[in-house]
Amino acid sequence: MNFRKITAASAAVLALAVTATACGSDDKDSGSSGGGDKVKVGIKFDQPGLGLKKPDGSYAGFDVDVAKYVAKELGYDEKNIEFKETPSADRENALQRGDVDYIVASYSITDERKAKVDFAGPYLLAHQDLLIRADDNIAKGADLNGKKLCSVTGSTSAQNVKKSIAPKAQLRKYGTYSECLDGLTSGAVDAVTTDDSILAGYASQDQYKGKVKLAGLKLSNENYGIGVKKGDTKMTDKINKALEKMASDGAWEKAVKDNFGPANYKNEPAPKIGNIVK
Amino acid sequence: MEAREIVFDFLEGYDVLAAFWVTVKLTLFSAIGSLVWGTLLAGMRVSPVPLMRGFGTFYVNTVRNIPLTVIIVFSSLGLADVFGMTLGASDDFDALSFRLSILGLSAYTAAFVCEALRSGINTVPMGQAEAARALGLSFTQVLRMIVLPQAFRAVIVPLANVLIALTKNTTVAAAIGVGEAALLMKEMIENEAATVLIAFIFALGFVVLTLPMGLILGWLGKRLAVKR
Amino acid sequence: MSSVLYDTPGPRAKQRNILYTVAFVVLLGLLLWWVYQQMDDAGQMAWAKWKPFTLSTTWTTYLLPGLGETLKAAALAMVISLPLGALFGIARLSDHRWVRVPAGVIVEFFRSIPVLLMMVFANQVYVQSTDLSSETRPLYAVVTGLVLYNASVLAEIVRAGILSLPKGQSEASHAIGLRKSQTMTSILLPQAVTVMLPAIVSQLVVIVKDTALGGAMLNFTDLLNARKTEAAFYANVIPSFVVVGLIYILLNLALTTFAGWLERRLRRSKRGTGTVLSAEDVEDLNSTDTGAVVGAGAGAGGPADDVGKR
């Protein structure tokens, strides 16, 4: 055994350790550097039309537009917005521990969630709907019996259909809606179900334009709200004011057109603040 | 009795045993599938045809270096949707996911089975076969009477290790929503307060599944080992 | 060439082999053609679905940051589990029963549990009782799960590495009057490190592969998860899987090749004892069978895989 070799080996291990810890501490820095004049906003990164990370690293979608408008009204410059990914399962948690200041991520207002977080808005009234192939027709929910229905793991939309609308529908669950869309265009499934706003986002993507369409069923009401930390009424009020202004000055209408336009999506008018449609 | 009810009331509404039964079924079917496919691969890897050897090596090196998660998710997406593989379960998606995950697990585990078998064959010293040929035994006789009996014994322990690894790997099927132990644990742990206790129960379940395998097959392997 | 299974082929066997080769090529070709046709029919071969991977932004925005997270988790897991593994590995070799037995129980327990279970558990514990932000928590959970599992595997590697050294090493060191701890730290461990290096690099492959579990189940933003965001923008689910799969293969193949090179080099080296723990030993250690360290004591004899080497 040669001493030089041991030194070389331990140096390699040490180098690995140093780089790794360097990475680790980098991470911590970026984590704690928030706050101050920055605003941290939770959105989705993988939902076309609502919140999508673009190749240039910027974000696009209706939720993003709303988030930006609200941030501007709260007095933040656009470049001071720090977007963070908040997966559905993590939303309450992220708000409770203050990882984000508010969340605009197709976040339906429900009583169960209201026990944990506060909501501003609603800012959009969406409905559970179906996305089907362009040459298909599904006129009512019961037509789904015997058809193959796609949804994502952890979503309740599919269970709703199965429970009350079409008990004989077959449920296929994927990790993301993109995968459902692939199945829809290839014929592996007959319909994708979730909120019409999410579906419209996919239908507007270039890759799916003309191949799929919304069935136009209103299977449920989803009131999208902006999630705020429980008890932060000051923030809630400010966001509500911003949303009111957004609806009145035409920015809301424009954002809907920009993001859902190509899907032939018949949106509901801008909801009144605090008016939750059951 | 009362105390037990209080301690274990988080088990209510969850069928832990059924989830572990799915784990066992996944293990069993994938073990059979991977044994068949792995044997074929091993046959290719030791065959006199260079191209087959090349294919066997390529398969093993490729599959061993992809995360099982990627293979399982890809079987679900790629095989079912693009290749229309419904495996006789086109109307029942739960059964489809179950069967697809068996396919993925088998394809992955086969690479390890192949390597275990190959190393087993390689433990037989060249001299054994040479001596047998010198005695005038035919190819099939050499294989049947000299090589395979020795190779088979040497292969028990490595194969047992592959089986144990497979048992643990079945949890990856949770990634495509197969209702086996890991998926149930994730659901329970997120909804119930007794985090540590739930985790311990599931961990114990896997210990109970894998420990006997290791002990019994390890004992058998040692007993049958060819002393050299 | 010849092997234990067959002799050097004669003229008839050569002809037969050519026949087999042709049949195999035809079968393989048919399979590949069928795969291509099916992909084409499903529109998966469309250039629009593959073109994104020729754009640099696809890599810089989606895939490379994901790959970075994957590597970070793997490196952290390895660096943390190495000393832990050494500790438990040495503890299992202790002369004292009260050290040896508990260490053995802990190591065997964690080796027999799926790593996914540990990740899910760690994630939940962090949600309930720590102040980790929801951004960094998945990384911590993944690393914790990997450390718990791999420290126990590395413990076995360390143990096997020390056991693989010739007995004369410790005997000689006792003879010159070194104490047990001195024997371990200045004689056995330094040599064992060299013996173990290839096995440790091979274990890194296992770690890299297991990070993908966090991406699929815990929202860890690793390579697999980055694929999801990429596919949401370009709507190319299947192609993105193929590309990400290729990245994993190349990365792990590089590690495996490095481990193999290291192993050969160490085996050749005349200065060491000639014992090396190889990649194959690591595979056995990733299951639970107690004490089944095949080939660890193989000594200066080469690896077992000399089919057709003759």
TrEMBL record, chain A:
Residues 1-22 form the signal peptide. GO terms for cellular component: extracellular region; outer membrane-bounded periplasmic space. It comes from the Bacteria. SMART domains: PBPb. Keywords: Signal, Transport. GO terms for biological process: amino acid transport. PROSITE patterns: PROKAR_LIPOPROTEIN, SBP_BACTERIAL_3. Residues 38-263 form the Solute-binding protein family 3/N-terminal domain. It holds the Pfam family SBP_bac_3. SUPFAM superfamilies: Periplasmic binding protein-like II. The keyword Phosphoprotein does not apply. Belongs to the bacterial solute-binding protein 3 family. This is Glutamate ABC transporter substrate-binding protein. It comes from Streptomyces griseoaurantiacus.
UniProtKB/TrEMBL annotation, chain C:
Residues 67-259 form the ABC transmembrane type-1 domain. It is found in: Cell membrane. It comes from the Bacteria. The chain crosses the membrane at residues 18-36, 73-93, 105-127, 139-165, 186-208, 237-262. GO terms for molecular function: transmembrane transporter activity. Belongs to the binding-protein-dependent transport system permease family. This is Amino acid ABC transporter permease.
